[in-house]
Amino acid sequence: MRTHGLTHAFPGSAPLFVELDVELHAGDVVGLVGPSGSGKSTLLSLLAGWLRPTAGRVERQGVAHTGWVFQNPHGVPRRTALDHVVLPLLARGARRRDAEGEAGRVLERFGLAAVADRPFRALSGGEAQRLMLARAVATGSDLLLVDEPTAQLDLRTAATVNDVLSAVAQDDAIVVVATHDPRTRDACTRVVDLADFQTPAPEAP
What is the pTM of this model? Predict the structure, then answer.
């Protein structure tokens, strides 16, 4: 997957970024960084195909399914952690028994085996965010977009989420993470700084 000369501006506004060329490979965890308003979340939407760029294009060759993990984990309060990972496996055609076995293995990879039978509403913030990552892995996404995964977490809890980011890419997925957190940046295998793709401010006369 790659972008070619990607430029985007909202009507009446200066471009968020210009001439962005980046190549994304399966197994990469790519961090998107830059100042507030530099277009990190917008770039995620462009990569997902939700927005059409002002200029340039996104080549999505090899990407058949895109998953998204939002800032705030959303789950079904009374459903267990296991249920949240079983459901996408069932949707992919797995039998219930096989889905539960695979879901258990995914939860173990993310350090969640001990809370498999705990309802979502009883999970800590870090457990809930890790569960969202585990559920995204279970969907079989080729491209996984993660928006500020530690923005609402304390430092210790954020560290647990950062520790599992590399595990998300182990199934040959492309993982792109928008973040302000320097620890999350360090957990990525590559970094794209959108500050490098902004139009310079005009010099004062």
Answer: 0.86
Query: Both tokens of residue 146?
Result: 């993660």
CB 147 within 8 A of CB 176: no
DSSP 55: E
> Reduced to 3 states, what is the DSSP secondary structure of residue 171?
helix
Q: What is the DSSP pairing of strand 143-147 with strand 17-23?
A: unpaired
pLDDT digits (tens, 9 = 90+) for 52-81: 999 999 999 889 889 898 888 889 999 999
- CA atoms of 27 and 173, how far apart (whole Å): 6
Taking every pair of Cα atoms in the chain, the longest distance, rounded to a whole number of angstroms, is 71
First to last CA, the chain: 42
Query: Any idea what DSSP says for residue 77?
Result: T
Rounded Cα–Cα distance for residues 78 and 148 (Å): 25
What is the Rg, in whole angstroms, of the alpha carbon atoms belonging to the chain? 18
Query: Alpha helices of the chain — where are they, by DSSP H?
Result: 40-48, 81-91, 96-109, 125-138, 155-168, 182-187
Task: Decide: helix, strand or coil at residue 179.
Answer: coil
Residue 103 contacts residue 86 (beta carbons within 8 Å): yes
CATH class, 2-197 region: alpha beta
